[in-house]
Specification:
The chain is of the alpha/beta class and 201 residues long. The protein contains six helices and eight strands; from the N terminus they run αββααβαβββαβαβ.
Length: 201
């Protein structure tokens, strides 16, 4: 019995000695060789639940949805989907760009490819803010290019009417309530766009 316990300790120590120099490291932190199954399943769940097809994405855009490109800023600057309303929120710098969004819109997010998780991570980050419905175009930029959709290198849209100031974003990433105009002020019609009583159409 004691011999078995000693043998287990020796094997575990040897495994640790081998693992440490071989394991990938980021920022001095050792990463696990095996993925976090629970975290992966959550990403897959959101990808499946929120995913839209190319046709669904284009229909959303046609009806006023905002496209969020979650790729790095330099990639967005080179080329991105040609959409009437499109903004760039790099997943790695989301805290300093969250004020670009306003409530009341529908949003469709894409990143680089089917294997990119940036769009899902951005949805998870933005969910507590409740800006509006968030959907994901899973094929991402690769899918946009392969489908031959219109692309451009133009500037992103300004949903805030010039109120977005990256230098004024709180370090916490929280959005001040008075920093966001109503959706109607950002170029999107209010929910009830009917003609007022007594007014001619």
């Amino acid at each position: 019995m004691i011999l078995r316990m000693v043998l287990i300790v020796v094997i575990a120590s040897a495994a640790a000695a081998i693992y440490q120099p071989l394991a990938p490291r980021i920022g001095g932190r050792t990463l696990p060789l095996w993925p976090d199954v629970q975290a992966l399943s959550e990403v897959d769940r959101l990808r499946n639940e929120l995913g839209v097809s190319q046709e669904e994405m284009m229909e959303m855009i046609e009806y006023g949805a905002v496209v969020i490109d979650a790729r790095p800023a330099e990639e967005f600057a080179k080329a991105h989907l040609d959409a009437p309303l499109i903004i760039n929120i790099p997943e790695s710098h989301k805290e300093s760009h969250v004020q670009k969004l306003v409530p009341g819109f529908r949003y469709v997010i894409y990143c680089s490819s089917l294997t990119c998780d940036a769009a899902v991570h951005l949805v998870q980050y933005l969910e507590p803010y409740a800006f509006g419905e968030m959907r994901i175009f899973n094929p991402g930029w690769d899918g946009i290019v392969k489908a031959g959709l219109a692309i451009t290198s133009g500037p992103e849209s300004d949903l805030t009417g010039g109120m977005f100031d990256p230098g004024a974003v709180p370090s916490s990433g929280e959005v001040p309530g008075d920093a966001l105009p109503p959706a109607g002020d950002a170029g999107q019609p209010p929910a009830d766009a009917s003609v007022a009583d007594g007014e001619a159409p």
